[in-house]
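ugh ok so i messed up the first submission bc i forgot one of the chains. this is the corrected input, ALL of the components this time, i swear. 627 residues overall. if the numbers dont match what u have on ur side tell me asap before i send this to the collaborators (the ones from the other lab, u know who)
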Amino acid sequence: MTATLQLALRSLVNRRATGLLTVGAIAISVALLLGVQKMRSAAREGFASTVSGVDLIVGARSGPLNLLLYSVFRVGDATANVSFESYQLVAKHRDVAWTIPISLGDSHRGFRVLGTDDAYFEHYRVAGGRLLAFAEGKRFSDLYDVVLGADVAEELHYKLGHAVVIAHGAADVSFTQHDEQPFRVVGILTRTGTPVDRTVHVGLEAISAIHETAAPAGITAFMVGMRDRTAMLTMQRALNEYKKEPLLAIIPGVALKQLWDLVAVADRALTVVAAFVVFAGLLGMLTAILVSLNERRREMAILRSVGARPRHVFALLVSEAGLLAFAGVLAGIVITYALLAAAQPWLAAHYGIFVPVTGLNGFDLAMLGGIVVAALAMGLFPAWRAYRNTLADGLTIRV
Amino acid sequence: MPDDAIDLEQLTFAWPGAPALLRIERLRVARGERVFLRGPSGSGKSTLLGLIGGVLAPTGGSIRVLGQPLHDMSASQRDRFRGQHVGFVFQMFNLIPYLSVRENVALALRFAPQRAARIPAGARAAEAARLLSALGLADPELLDRAVTRLSIGQQQRVAAARALLGGPELVVADEPTSALDHDARESFLRLLMQECAAHGTTLLYVSHDPTLGALFDRQYSLAELNAA
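and heres the new structure output, hopefully the right one now
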């Protein structure tokens, strides 16, 4: 067996131009497949940790996805507010460690304005359980202070101290511009890869000030951190059954999972495409081996003359396919990790996607093993052809 | 009385669905004999060599090589027998292009463990070098050269060294000199016969060129032997 493997290797080295091209094609397809897998899991991880450390999100009764969309992703609007009384009641509950009020509804040049308080900076966590950090400046302390997400500052070219005008309503061009109340940028957050980057943060009181009301009548939603997480489900049920006001409490992880399942179709499609690219790479290999067969009939006849059996010739070609695929898979792994390592800082800085350079997991290994097995299976075809040629040719080839 | 090197009796061969191509009443080659078999191309020469090499099985009759009944053996037994006891030199393109001279010669032992066992593992390289040198390729630098950089004459000597390595009892040469000029042909043949004589190796030499026949112990014409 080792004799055949050695011969297969020498033969491939001899045909290194086609061999390298074949290995390259397989390597690129494998890198694509692995890359898609890595990005998929990174995207899923990133998505799942869009908000973390929050036990419950509470809003007016609508649907869980709706509540998640407007409270975390700043997409859409709440159908109703949560009264300040209900908020206070939950905030002061003995099982509740902290709450983050969220008041949406205003926009600044297309970016959502979020009214909140210090708890937001103390408890809201994003990917990897990280708290929000400041690239520049500090939290808002004055009524007209504003803290910008990374994208907002970058796209609008805002610096610290910049004056900002906030409009009522989410649309880019709003009917009522609150021109008389210019806000001032006091802080810019580091990039998180979450909707926080596209949010303009102000104090809760500022929202009331924009609308010229004395005290906040209500907030859009709030997030809850439990003192004891075992009380989470009890609290969720209590809120959902709360008689005085129709409230809805959701567990963000569960709702995120539901939302991910909706968008996961696209990433599954990507995997299927990558799998087809691998298949195309293997077909290229098959073509290269089949094309080589005719010019190698003499070689097979020589091997036969020194005692090689037809099954040796068969094994020679199958191991050739196996070697090509194995080399392709190895090169593909190298390419994937080299690209990941090189692109990691860029992806994190520009898209907020943190792709961890982790080892291959069981699924990856099974997938790569599957590619080599598929190549061996495809190698059976040229091997069978060569076997047939060998039996017909014997020691003298008839061409 | 030792067995003949080759003993064919009532041998017939036909490709499936075709009329008989070979029908040989009797052909005996004694051990150590150097026999010339004359046959123009298309006379069934290659088929006969395929039968003696055990790549083909006869349709009828018996074929004994070194006393072994090839007609009774399975295909894989015949393959093993060939690897162990028979060396082949062909007309052209005898060498695997991606192996060096040394590796091409050593190929004779790769699929024939018993033949390899005849030479101690440490002495194989030296034996290959000795054979090459005896066949006129003494330059040690040549051993690691790619075979594609050799002349045809040199290639044929390498092929002969491979056929002889491990001391097979029978060497079959199928027009090995047809691509060589007259002088190279003579010197190649002389060296090959010398080496066979030195080891008591039976040589079956097939060619369409009748002028070589005089150099051999005996000569046959395939056209006369073949009754088909």
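quick check: Residues 56-250 of chain A form one domain. that seems consistent at least. The first helix of chain A runs from residue 2 to 14.
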